[in-house]
Structures are given as structure tokens and as C-alpha cells.
Write a structure and sequence with these properties.
The complex is a heterodimer of chains A (200) and B (106). Chain A has 200 residues and is an all-alpha fold. Chain A contains eight helices and no strands. Chain A has a domain of 133 residues: Four Helix Bundle (Hemerythrin (Met), subunit A), CATH 1.20.120. Helices cover 73% and strands 0% of the residues of chain A. Chain A is extended. Chain A starts with a helix and ends in a 5-residue tail after the last helix. Chain B is mainly α. Chain B has one domain: Helix Hairpins (Orthogonal Bundle), CATH 1.10.287.3510. In chain B, helix 1 runs antiparallel to helix 2. The radius of gyration of chain B is 17 Å and the shape is elongated. The N and C termini of chain B lie far apart (52 Å). Classes of the chains: A mainly alpha (200), B mainly alpha (106). The interface between A and B is large, with 64 and 58 residues.
């Protein structure tokens, strides 16, 4: 219960931090902490697979994409100005915050409160146990049997997103081989196949 | 419905989710940097996910988990397309401010 309120305060604090920063890079760092705290909250809700997905997809993919775009937009436009000695001051509170969050999680886990919540009646087991509610096995079974069609549609959505991004942002293709060169390569390939698959 | 499965009452989760959601709404409405607007949208997606998981936990039904998974997928697609649009706008104007994007305004 203490874990919930501490995480709630941290989540709201990091959310406000994200929205109020002037530099988007700081917002990304705030969002990183927000997602990490949210993943902890997901674990207390028996959603271990989604907690991992939260870390992997959001902090591993989406935030990297954000950082990448920020780097792309700020390159060559405004000179990067790290400011006077900003890093050491920012590192200490950030490190303490991360350490406190981690320590809290470990402390709470050692007292068994996460497990106690998860093993309450009718829940069917503890977090981390196979075949418990919300475990990877349980989730996977539901995803590939009852909810197979939504899962397939997810693949379609991702494909549409990829095509959309390529159409939007990939207008300048750097290398387009001429028709003559393409024909040359095709003839070479065909001859190689006739020879038995060996390119010279 | 069995609220004894949660460490705190379900209403606490709903309240936390609402607070984070409206912080995200405030970010979308008040900020003009499209990157921060996209991050605020991510905050809103995640507050919705929190609700899905809390209700899935209370009702011991993992449809909420599946839906949260789909929400994460759609959020990833949305972030990718949104960032692509930001990059295109930036290439055209060399400057990012949503108030300057008014091609559809007539």
C-alpha cells in the first residue's frame, strides 16, 4: 500500500516534469522515469509480462525514437550547449531517485507485500510463478487462443505504420540504380544461376 | 468484483489514472513543441493502460492485459508516425512549433 502511494506521487511528479520542461530532452528523461515507475506499478497488479513490455517497448523503442528525432532536429541548427557544469548537479538527484525507487522495490519485495497481494484468494499464485493470473504463460495462452484475431490485426496496424512512416519521411531516396545498371545486375544473376549458383 | 485483490481501493487507481491523464491533456493543450505534445499523448495512453490492468486485476480477467498490449502496439505506431510528421514539418520549415503548422486552416 505504501508502495502504491509512493509510486503514485512519483508518477504524478514525473508526469508534471515531462509536461513543464522547455527542452524536450529533459522531458524524455522524465518520461523514462515515469515508464519505469509505471512498470513497477504493473508488477503490483500481477501484470508481469506487460511490465516487461512497458520497459522494452517504451523505454527501449519509443524513447530512443524520441531521442533520435530530437538529435536529428537539433543537429546543425542550434549549436549544442551543455550549459555551465550542469551534469554533476543533475546526476546526483537522478541517481538518488533511481536508487530510492529500486531500494523501495527490493525492500517491499523482501517483505513479501507484492507476493502477498498476488497470492490473495482466487488469484491463483504469486507473481513470477508459472500459470498464475497475469503470468507470461497465462497471457500467452489467452493471446494465441481467444484473442488471436486482435493479435493478427496488430500486425496489420504495425505494417500500416511502417508504410506510413516510409511514405512520410523517406521521400529522398539516396540511391536509385539506373535501369541499365539494374538490367546488368539481373543478367549477371541469371547467368550465375545457369552456371550453378556461383557468382564470379 | 473483488476489491480485496488490490493493495489499495480501485478508486485510488482510477484517481491516479485520471490525474496522469489530465496532466497529459494539459500538455497537449498548453505546449507548442510537437515533441512534448507527443510525449503527453504517451502519458495519456499509459494512464489508460493503468486502468485496464487495475480492472483486469479486480475482475481476474486477462482481457484487460490483452487490450493493454494492443494499446502499447498502437501507441508505438502512433509515436512513429507522429515523429515522422514532425521530421517532415521540420524539413519544410526548419523550425518546430505547432502554431506555425496551418496548412489546413485555409
Amino acid at each position: 500500500m505504501i508502495l502504491f502511494w509512493v509510486l503514485a506521487v512519483l508518477l504524478v511528479g514525473t508526469a508534471i516534469f515531462v509536461v513543464t520542461q522547455t527542452k524536450p530532452v529533459y522531458s524524455v528523461v522524465g518520461l523514462l522515469f515515469h515508464f519505469a515507475f509505471l512498470a513497477m506499478l504493473f508488477i503490483t497488479l500481477n501484470a508481469e509480462f506487460l511490465a516487461l513490455i512497458q520497459i522494452v517497448v517504451y523505454t527501449g523503442a519509443i524513447l530512443v525514437l524520441f531521442v533520435f528525432v530530437i538529435a536529428l532536429l537539433s543537429s546543425g541548427v542550434t549549436p549544442f550547449d551543455p550549459g555551465p557544469d550542469r551534469m554533476p548537479r543533475a546526476v546526483i538527484p537522478a541517481g538518488l531517485l533511481a536508487l530510492a525507487g529500486l531500494g523501495l522495490l527490493v525492500y517491499d519485495e523482501s517483505r513479501g507485500s507484492v507476493a502477498r497481494v498476488a497470492s490473495s484468494p482466487a488469484a491463483g499464485g504469486m507473481v513470477g510463478q508459472a500459470n498464475a493470473f497475469g503470468s507470461v504463460a497465462d497471457f500467452g495462452k489467452a493471446l494465441f487462443t481467444t484473442y488471436l484475431l486482435p493479435f493478427e490485426i496488430t500486425a496489420f496496424v504495425l505494417m500500416v505504420a511502417v508504410i506510413g512512416v516510409v511514405i512520410l519521411a523517406g521521400k529522398e531516396t539516396p540511391y536509385v540504380p539506373s535501369r541499365r545498371q539494374a538490367a546488368l545486375v539481373e543478367r549477371e544473376m541469371r547467368e550465375a544461376i545457369l552456371r550453378g549458383g556461383e557468382l564470379e | 468484483m473483488n476489491s480485496a485483490l488490490l493493495p489499495v481501493s480501485l478508486m485510488s487507481y482510477v484517481g491516479l489514472s485520471a490525474v496522469i491523464f489530465f496532466i497529459g491533456v494539459g500538455g497537449v493543450l498548453l505546449r507548442r513543441n510537437p515533441l512534448i505534445i507527443l510525449m503527453s499523448i504517451e502519458l495519456m495512453w499509459n494512464s489508460a493502460n493503468l486502468l485496464f490492468l487495475a480492472f483486469a486485476r479486480v475482475w481476474l480477467n486477462n482481457a484487460g492485459h490483452i487490450f493493454a498490449f494492443l494499446v502499447i502496439t498502437v501507441a508505438a505506431a502512433e509515436a512513429a508516425i507522429g515523429l515522422a510528421i514532425v521530421v517532415v514539418v521540420f524539413r519544410r520549415t526548419h523550425h518546430v512549433d505547432v502554431d506555425d503548422v496551418r496548412l489546413l486552416k485555409g
